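Obj: model holo form, ligand = flavin mononucleotide.
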Amino acid sequence: MLKIAPDLTNEQLDDIIDIVADTKIDGVIATNTTIDRSGLKTDKNKVDAIGNGGLSGKPVGLRSTEVIKYLADKSNRAFPIIGVGGIHSAEDALEKLDAGATLLQVYTGFIYQGPSLVKRINKAILKR
Ligand SMILES: Cc1cc2nc3c(=O)[nH]c(=O)nc-3n(C[C@H](O)[C@H](O)[C@H](O)COP(=O)(O)O)c2cc1C
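Output (holo structure tokens):
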């Protein structure tokens, strides 16, 4: 599986689709953490003081879903996509599946919500 950043442009995502086809990689994990610092509630000085690094959880959720949707739509669902980034609730998980993810991973949401998040996600999927 190839794991990609949420900071890639759509042109770069087109390249990813070609690379997966050419190399027969089994699929894509979308997405990793982000270097983007826009739209945060935390004071900018504090964010600057914390410094560089990958941001996970809610701030990456929307872009992660956009990347999943772009890859799924543009490739005609040609390969499996593992959806990850900002899943903190069953609704977030269903959004990723609706965008075109075939499997899900939960990192930051697991820390904040605890293991019962997985149960809630599974129940929501079964309810469909
Ligand atoms: C503490 C921590 C460590 C991580 N370590 C790695 C890593 O070693 N390699 C990697 O590809 N992604 C790593 N990630 C990124 C996660 O796999 C995931 O793609 C990203 O955090 C978005 O999901 P989330 O919002 O559920 O955390 C890490 C994330 C966190 C929070």
